């Protein structure tokens, strides 16, 4: 397998449009030009914010001057009760046409180098559950499964939680009960409207 030379650098504002493409932030939307401009502006602001934070890094991989992938790194405590820190790799992505060219390895080497510079002994990486290749690759590198990360929208999670808030939330306030009752009434109304006549 032929490997191209991969160059790495910290993200710059000029990389914003390419990084929007890397992470697929632009699903099919109406007014695509406006959505692209807005997403690029948001990405440029995020790049500046990350560059100013000594505990974050956004590394871009290029092959022949084309953005091939990127990784977002964060240094944070290993847990709420430990002083040890870890480098969290939550958004490692290689564009499909550049896979199997050493891009992922180069980004993970940059991760390890940064962890060493920050005197951090742990790396925690997340990969999409749907990406068997990424999960196998990380397993081959010695990253064992330590957790399952799940996600939901706030309204979806609220709909599944009990209507009555826990006792600790109810102490001294009536508003918690009122909010719970309003939400329960709205869910009930939505269910009755959704039922076929």
From TrEMBL:
> Sorted alphabetically, which InterPro entries does this protein's record hold?
Bact_Acetyltransf, GNAT_dom
Q: Where is the N-acetyltransferase domain positioned along the sequence?
A: 6-164
Molecular functions per Gene Ontology: acyltransferase activity, transferring groups other than amino-acyl groups
Q: Which organism is it from?
A: Nocardioides panacis
The record, for PROSITE patterns, names:
GNAT (PS51186)
The name this protein carries in UniProt is GNAT family N-acetyltransferase
The alphabetized UniProt keywords are:
Acyltransferase, Transferase
* Pfam families referenced in this protein's UniProt entry, alphabetically: Acetyltransf_1
> Does the record carry Transferase as a key word?
yes
Keyword Transferase in annotation? yes
